[in-house]
Amino acid sequence: MYATSKIHYDVTQKEMKQPTLIQIWKTQNELEQSVAGKIYEVIRRKLKEKTQCCIVLSGGGTPRNVYRRMGLDETNTLIDWNRVQVFFSDERAVPPDDPQSNYGMVQREWISHIPVPRSHVHRIQGELNPKSAARKYEQEIRKIFEHDPVVFDLVLLGVGEDGHTASLFPGTDAVLEKEALVTSTFVQQFKNWRVTLTVPVLNAAHEIIFLAAGTKKAAIIQRILEKDTPDIKLPASLIQPPQGTLCWMIDEEAGLELKEHSSIIIQRL
Predict the structure, then answer these.
(1) Which of 66, 146, 223, 265 is the most buried (most CB within 10 A)?
(2) Do 217 and 255 contact (CB within 8 A), yes or no?
(3) How many Cβ atoms are within 10 Å of 23's Cβ, its own excluded?
(4) Is 21-204+225-268 in CATH node 3.90.190.20?
(5) Where does residue 127 rank: exposed (0-12), middle (13-18), buried (19+ CB within 10 A)?
(6) pLDDT at 228
(7) 3-state secondary structure of 234
(8) How far is CA 235 from CA 13, 20, 89, 238, 258, in A?
(9) CA–CA dist 262, 16 (Å, integer)
């Protein structure tokens, strides 16, 4: 197993977290438009600062709408796609043409509309044995970063009603993984295998965005954001980058149960 130098996160630590920025839009439509713009803004900014930009994308219904907007956005033409590397936070154990494939969805909605080189789109090979897929994906990530620490420029994540993010589900060993960048996990509630990035590598990112919309997410968002310390029973609460920035971008419905307190900063847009 690889060591993750400079990338470590102890889920048992009891340090108080820094206030988290919550940006709330009135409608889901406004939210999706703003997140699409934010992703392009980060890519363009990073390409002015360095030779390449590495982003991590999530699956899910709300991200799907964001990617669709990105595919139609003329900002596409202003980006040097030869310097962008695209990764995925997690994947189900399915082939890329399966309707449940995160890669397949992103490919249809966004990647097929931009001139990014195929070799710069790094999918998790869900058709392989999950452990083999995790091992191969970690090797591919390390190959791109070569001798540098694995630090993604931007990570887009969602959150489930049970508090999971990526495929880090409550009660699974994946939540506790501290050394590997990628791991496989069996999700009992769905009776399927997943491959996912782990907490340490997610927390090492420069910028992390949580995207959520709708009333069904309101209760879990309130539980996560009112936690003073990370809780392995709510895996999304473990995502607290020590050097990077963390922002929740949600609509009014998803933020219905949030109240102002010392752990969060709310911006209503």
Answers:
(1) 66
(2) no
(3) 19
(4) no
(5) middle
(6) 80
(7) coil
(8) 14, 16, 14, 5, 19
(9) 11
Q: Name the strand (E) or helix (H) holding 45.
A: helix 28-49
> Is residue 253 within 8 Å of 216, Cβ to Cβ?
no
* Model confidence pLDDT, tens digit, residues 146-180: 989 999 999 999 999 999 999 999 999 999 999 99
- Give the strands of the sheet with 192-197, arranged side by side: 90-92, 192-197, 182-187
Region label for 86, one of left (φ > 0), alpha (ψ between -120 and 50) or beta (otherwise): beta
- Rounded Cα distance, 215 and 220, in Å: 10
Neighbouring-strand partners of residue 177: none
Q: Where are the domains of the chain?
A: 21-204+225-268
Q: According to the model, what pLDDT value does residue 12 have?
A: 39
Quote the radius of gyration of the chain (alpha carbons, Å): 17
- Indicate the pLDDT class of residue 13, thresholds 50, 70 and 90: very low
Q: What is the mean pLDDT of residues 240-267?
A: 91
Q: Phi and psi dihedrals of 245, rounded to 5?
A: -110, 150
Q: How many residues does the chain have?
A: 269
The mean of the pLDDT values for the chain is 92
- Three-state helix/strand/coil letters over 96-157: CCCCCCHHHHHHHHCHHHCCCCHHHECCCCCCCCHHHHHHHHHHHHHHHHCCCCCCCCEEEE
